[in-house]
Amino acid sequence: MNSLMTRRENRTARKGKSARQRRLARLGVGAGLLAAAMVVVRAEEGTAAAPSAPLGEPTPSKDTEGPLAYRKMSLEELMSLDITSVSKHSEPYRDAPAAIQVITEDEIRRSGATSIPEALRLADNLEVARKNSHDWAISARGFNTELSNKLLVLIDGRTVYTPLFSGVFWDEQDYLLADIDRIEVISGPGGTLWGANAVNGVINITTKSAKETQGTYLEAGGGSTLRDFGGLRYGGSLGTNTFYRIYGKYSDQANEVIANGTGASDGWSRGQGGFRVDSEPSPQNLITLQGDVYASGEHVPTGGSAKTSGGNLLGRFSHTFSEDSDLSLQVYYDRTHLYDPVPKSAFAPAGILVNDLDTYDVDFQHRLGLADWNHLVWGLGYRFTRDASQNAPALAFRPPVLNQDLFSGFVQDEIKIMRQLSLTLGTKVEHNDYTGFEVEPSARVQWDVATNHMAWGAVSRAVRTPSRIDRDAFEPNPPPRILGDSPHFLSETLIAYELGYRAQIGPRFATSVSGFYNEYDDVRSLGFTPATIVPLFFQNNLEGSTYGLELSASYQVTSWWRLHGGYDLLKEHLRVKPGQVDLNHALNETSDPQQQFSLRSSMDLPGNVEFDPMLRWVDTLHNNNGGVVGTVPSYFELDVRVAWHITKHLELAVVGQSLLHDHHAEYGLPSPNREEIERSVYGKLTWRF
After folding, report:
1. What is the mean pLDDT of residues 131-135?
2. 58: exposed, middle or buried (Cβ count in 10 Å: 0-12, 13-18, 19+)
């Protein structure tokens, strides 16, 4: 069981073709296109406006002037930045009634991050811990365990969580960071719009349009731990209103260490490439086609090497009727492949788990204004997945091949009760093959207290539907079973209560604060078979609550110096239901610090020099150590980036990460073999032309 809970989160995969899949894909695309055509024919006519940004499509930048320019936003511009995650249509960040933070392209660049997980450290409302060279633990508002499963992540509208454990394999998610427009991070449930597993938060990563990435971009560097890396992108045009880009990226990461400083044998390398085409055949229509492929190899400390690979292809069509009405249709295919060495256990020899997952997804959305005071957004979706496993002796899934259908629909109505008061009501309804129908309603109120001052509150229901590990996993293979499959495992549920306040106080200071109280039921537990004890199996015997506070603030000290700070408080109270049992004593589903804070400084110094230090403190992390409490000690850490713009085209940067320790633990159980993160320094050269 411990092997399952610590190893299965390392990666997932997707593969395979069948006539049935192709028929389903064609059927889904055809049905979506038919629905879009019907809406176009029957929709209201009006003066066309510039297309909005549905399903994560970036809003065109007003600050970009060619391939060499950076979007250096003032606080006023940042608060006015259009976002899409809260309401599934564009709205200013300052007016979004949710606990949301926005990571801009310039913040990513100045952080020195070289991967998406590193960039997510910029979100104060996330818990981000590096486990080893290639694995990360990332969550919002708790439950950041080995099988973290309550955070939904999207890249350009494509869901990247895996149904293997309802979480994210962060070593498989990457992009050329220079081409990311923004990352929107919602802490709190988003199930009403985004569906199951958007329980504690949503991360929506939006890349730039091809029009915004014209010209050539080249980056290269290397250092002590990040041994070498490089990226290349070229953007051009195929006509007056059609633009494209192609890109490639590679990185090679050295081993991290264990407590005594010995190498952990977990180094890895990864390559990724892709393309994007954006066409605007008319002012009312936008068409996007994009895709990515990747492959990586990872050393496993227990022996052998894991391999992952995959790719995706996404198409999106958007049509604008008027300023208040538009529709979009999105279709994508996603495939990943996993080859993972599974170490021997006390009950089975070592072996290889091979897992392939194919995902076909169709999503349709329509926004319309019913009146000046009433705006409606609704949509329909269908997803087909085929999960195929070649089982290992120490871990297996039954059935080895599983086809699943997910049908969904949502509606959200925004009602302006009076000039300063708005009410938003909505729900999402899904049907999955494990638990049938799931309903996720919410009610959200927004009060514009004064100019640039907004208060909000929300009550929401969200669910985390069963994954293959919850229902279908067993070990060892063949019997006798120590861990058995759990066909009666139910969805975990959440009722969330939230209050928040966001304000811009003059041109130099902006702040946001949110508080929450969450009630959880039917949370995963580990039970046993009466009389024989084994096999063990998963149940829903836990319940409990969490509450906390999230605070962030930005201060423009001078025109060349900005400060940003964040603080999180989280209290967790998970317990076994009366009369029930959990062999892990309600410890296995939480692995979180009670407090954390960060402070960032961004300075534009004379001589075209940028200086960006980031200090963070993370409280003691408590986790499950075989049914008793284990800990990761609290720590301070410092990252620093110094960059010199040699010319308008050329930039040289030196980045130091985890500078306060030779090495220290951010995650994991107490053990001499717990992996720790080393101090790292690297240099980077960037050329734009």
Report:
1. 94
2. buried
Task: Return the number of other C-beta atoms located less than 10 Å from residue 20's C-beta.
Answer: 11
Task: State the amino acid at position 426 in one-letter form.
Answer: G
Q: Which of 57, 43, 123, 116 is nearest to 85 (CA)?
A: 57
CATH at 56: 2.40.170.20
Is residue 658 within 8 Å of residue 666, measured between CB atoms? no
CB atoms within 10 A of CB 376: 18
Residue 173 has φ and ψ, to the nearest 5°, of -110, 115
What per-residue confidence (pLDDT) applies to 303? 80
Helices (H), 229-384: none
Closest residue by Cα to residue 262 from 662, 667, 628, 680: 662
Structural domain boundaries enclosing 289: 2-688
Report the chain's mean pLDDT, rounded to a whole number.
90
Helix (H, G, I), strand (E, B) or coil at 609: strand
How many domains does the chain fold into?
Answer: 1
The beta strands (E) that lie in 85-179 are given as 91-92, 100-104, 127-130, 136-139, 151-155, 158-159
Structure tokens at 216: 């050539």
Nearest-angstrom CA–CA distance, 543 and 601: 41
Side-chain-facing half-sphere of 561: CA atoms under 13 Å? 5
At 21-71, the pLDDT tens digits run 343 333 333 333 333 333 333 333 333 333 334 343 433 333 333 334 455
Q: Beta partners for 355? A: 338, 389
Q: What is the pTM of this model?
A: 0.90
The percent of the chain in helix, strand and coil, each rounded to the nearest 5, is: 10, 55, 35
pLDDT of residue 479: 86
